[in-house]
Design a protein that fits this description.
heterodimer, A: 5 strands, B: 6-stranded antiparallel beta sheet
């Protein structure tokens, strides 16, 4: 079991979920669904975004902090 | 004729042998009673203070809630009333090397505008590379700066920063998921 914090980007850290415990095999979509973060995506600590099916348990360290950012932002000319 | 005096009875019995008498031995009893030693009183000496040693209660200090820009070491300053965030976008390539690119985010009226200096060549592979516009930032020296145009804008510096890092990750690691 790993314990992480999920912070919502753009809230200045005011909205965050501490003590989120992950069982082996937990995927990004599991976290987003259980925290009711529809329309968000989980961002990698070292830059980039996790895919919805990425195994977060394998990808993060214990006590890691992850940001969830809005997924509808998009670059465009 | 028996020559006996009539006053002396005739005793018929066992011979005059010594009859052994068997009974409890006559042991000398030893009486044990509580002694009367001087009692020893064990107590802290009055002149010495009692020192109590106990485990200390650990103070737990938790990090303050921080935005992503703050968490990633960016700084903020104001220029003409506009908050300007400065720092580095980070991305880790497939070999595990961390690559950093100087960045800047300005909070304008209704959006957070992201800039990047000297982006990597791999950014040309990204489907949104044409959204990067060469931009002159007068206070940023010799670097070549680009502004990222939004179709759906980021409304806060965290989201702008994280989006640019995602774009770099997709470019460098050729991972075009979106």
């Amino acid at each position: 079991m790993k314990e992480i914090t999920v912070a919502i980007a753009g809230t200045g850290g005011r909205q965050e979920y501490r003590d989120v415990r992950l069982m082996p095999g937990t995927r990004a979509r599991d976290i987003l669904a259980q925290l009711n973060l529809t329309g968000f995506q989980l961002m990698k600590p070292e830059g980039g975004a996790f895919g919805f099916n990425d195994d977060i348990y394998e990808a993060v360290a214990d006590k890691q902090k992850l940001f969830a950012a809005k997924a509808d932002v998009e670059a465009g000319a | 004729m028996v020559d006996r005096q009539l006053s002396e009875p005739i005793v018929i019995g066992p011979g005059r042998e010594r009859v052994p008498v068997i009974g409890p031995a006559q042991m000398a009893f030893i009486t044990i009673t509580p002694g009367t030693p001087r009692p020893v009183i064990v107590s802290p000496e009055e002149n010495h203070p009692v020192i109590t040693i106990a485990p200390q209660v650990a103070r737990v200090i938790e990090p303050e809630p921080r935005g992503a820009w703050d968490e990633f070491g960016w700084t903020v300053r104001r220029q003409g009333g506009v908050p300007i965030y400065e720092g580095e976008y980070r991305v880790r390539d497939r070999l595990g090397h961390e690559r950093r690119f100087t960045g800047r985010i300005e909070e304008r009226q209704n959006e957070s505008v992201a800039f990047i200096a000297d982006p990597p060549d791999e950014i040309r592979n990204h489907r949104h590379h044409s959204c990067l516009q060469l931009y002159h930032l007068p206070d940023q020296g010799e670097r070549t700066w680009y502004l990222l145009h939004w179709r759906i804008p980021a409304r806060d510096p965290d989201t702008a920063l994280l989006y640019m890092e995602m774009m770099l990750d997709e470019s460098i690691n050729r991972n075009h998921r979106r």
